[in-house]
Design goal:
It comes from Fistulifera solaris (Oleaginous diatom). InterPro entries: Kinase-like_dom_sf, Leu-rich_rpt, Leu-rich_rpt_typical-subtyp, LRR_dom_sf, LRR_domain-containing, Prot_kinase_dom, Protein_kinase_ATP_BS. One of its GO terms (cellular component) is cytoplasm. One of its GO terms (molecular function) is ATP binding. This protein is of the alpha/beta class and 458 residues long. It has 3 domains: 149 residues, Leucine-rich repeat, LRR (right-handed beta-alpha superhelix); 92 residues, Phosphorylase Kinase, domain 1 (2-Layer Sandwich), CATH 3.30.200.20; 170 residues, Transferase(Phosphotransferase) domain 1 (Transferase(Phosphotransferase), domain 1), CATH 1.10.510.10. It is 26% helix and 16% strand. It contains 10 helices and 19 strands. A hairpin with a 2-residue loop joins β17 and β18. The relative contact order is 0.08. It binds adenosine-5'-triphosphate.
Length: 458
């Protein structure tokens, strides 16, 4: 093979130039490799099934690579040769395998949603910086033990796979906080136990129409505004035909939304019933805004809070009210064996005209699990981590400065000893008692804290 001065095989130059064209890169002509200024390449929807030889040398500073909606059958080896590559997306290809050498330590964000992958190579254990891993909609039956080395993993999506057993290797990871597991064989029996939604009232007189004003559209469906019996309502029509989203199945989301609405929690969106076609009729949220923005490339698995985010307007008291309502809600959900899976500031809506009003939205990643199982104990601790991250994010942005009580709550959520006993119910009881003790102190009343601890222990 003949090489040009940059060690790139001359035979590959035409193919590499085509890559530049497909990615619509604005580079000086004539194109001369290596292209040191290229950090991002978007090659989605380009009909590709391979990358040219010398790709890693042509783009030596590449850090983000999109290859979604192409025809790759294998995640190629060259992915592992790009020394700065942190994010790779191969959503909706025809992948059946991952080249073991494609997995290297620089990866932070791996997207392989909607493919046919059945096995993850042991080399995933090299990915010690991996923070976010999207594997929903594949054929994965088990995960390699080497995943125990992915100790920085914070978010994983594994919905609609073939897991016959709970993925214990993941459940033990120290930083995992967001997880989607719906539609896997090991959870099917639990889902069947929750299949009956007959309790939901059918609102026969609410006629759906495509002309109604659209409030918004997500991966799982479309939400429109209607007038029902003199009241404004929101109606969500689920895309029940969709088999794969990056989070989970729309049908399971619908079921969980209903099961959750039956709980008496002020932070859950009220469900009034369903239409004849099965769309959910909900309270209309007016003037509600998400408290955080979804993660950016840099923040990867963490939300972003812009300067005009509502969080900066909260008083300590309002933050306490919001956090208490959310904690009570999570305790109630886990009591029913429901894991939200996406407990993030960008899914927590606060009313801009009454900052005490909060709603937990987006059950897209949620799933039912077996309450009382060891898997369930781990799942609850994982979601406790997400809750602690959120409380800390709020507390460090309050206009009156950090609240010591909220700081203590974060520490209580993170208490690892004895780990199996840390759950939302216990944290909620502790939180109520701690708040009471604090109020009593303010009024100069003494509360015997040993009584509090004893109650908690029981
Ligand atoms: N009860 C409601 N009242 C008012 N607007 C709503 C209501 N429910 C949903 N919406 C609007 O519809 C949008 C889409 O909501 P939906 O729950 O379908 O998707 P999402 O959770 O935002 O996104 P995704 O499904 O991609 O995760 C919301 O962002 C919001 O603007």
């Amino acid at each position: 093979m003949t090489f040009c001065s940059s060690d790139i095989p001359i035979d590959s130059l035409q193919e590499l130039k085509r890559v530049v064209e497909l990615a619509k890169l604005d580079v000086p002509l004539p194109i001369s490799f290596p292209l040191d200024d290229v950090h991002t390449l978007n090659l989605s929807n380009c009909g590709l099934s391979t990358l040219p030889i010398g790709f890693e040398k042509a783009f030596p500073q590449l850090s983000i690579l999109f290859l979604s909606n192409n025809q790759f059958q294998q995640v190629p080896e060259v992915i592992g040769k790009c020394p700065h590559l942190q994010m790779v997306a191969f959503k909706s290809n025809q992948l059946t395998t991952i080249h073991p050498e494609a997995l290297q330590s620089q990866l932070r964000w791996l997207i392989l949603t909607d493919n046919q992958i059945s096995t993850i190579p042991e080399t995933i254990g090299r990915c010690t910086r991996l923070q976010k891993c999207m594997l929903s909609g594949n054929q994965i039956q088990t995960l390699p033990d080497a995943m125990a080395h992915c100790t920085n993993l914070e978010l994983i999506r594994l919905a609609s796979n073939q897991l016959k057993e709970p993925p214990m290797v993941l459940l033990r990871l120290p930083k995992l906080a967001w997880m989607a597991l719906s539609d896997n064989p090991f959870l099917h029996s639990v889902l069947e136990a929750h299949a009956d939604l007959k309790g939901l009232r059918t609102l026969e007189d609410l006629e759906e129409s495509n002309d109604a004003a659209i409030l918004g559209q997500g991966a799982s469906g479309i939400t429109r505004q209607y007038e029902y019996q003199g009241q404004k309502v929101a109606v969500k029509t689920y895309n029940t035909d969709i088999r794969v989203t990056s989070d989970g199945l729309p049908e399971e989301e619908r079921r969980i939304h209903c099961a959750a609405a039956a709980l008496d929690c002020s932070a859950l969106i009220r469900v009034l019933g369903q239409t004849v076609r099965g769309s959910l009729v909900m309270e209309l949220l007016q003037d509600f805004r998400a408290i955080g923005d979804p993660p950016s490339f840099d923040s990867c698995s963490r939300d972003v809070y812009s300067n005009d985010s509502l969080v900066h307007a909260l008083t300590t008291e309002q933050a306490m009210t919001i956090v208490s309502a959310l904690l009570q809600t999570l305790a109630a959900l886990h009591e029913q064996g429901i894991c939200h899976g996406d407990f993030y500031g960008h899914n927590i809506l606060v009313c801009a005209t009454d900052l005490n009003q909060v709603r937990l939205s987006d059950f897209g990643a949620a799933f039912f699990y077996e309450k009382g199982s060891s898997c369930g104990t781990f799942l609850e601790r994982i979601e406790l981590r997400a809750f602690a991250i959120f409380v800390k994010e709020v507390n460090t942005r309050l206009k009156e400065g950090e609240s010591p009580l909220l700081r203590a709550l974060v520490a209580r959520c993170r208490k690892e000893e004895p780990s199996s006993e840390n759950n939302f119910d216990r944290v909620y009881i502790w939180w109520k008692q701690t708040q009471l003790t604090d109020i009593a102190k303010e009024f100069g009343l003494g509360i015997d804290e040993t009584v509090v601890e004893e109650k908690e222990a029981n």
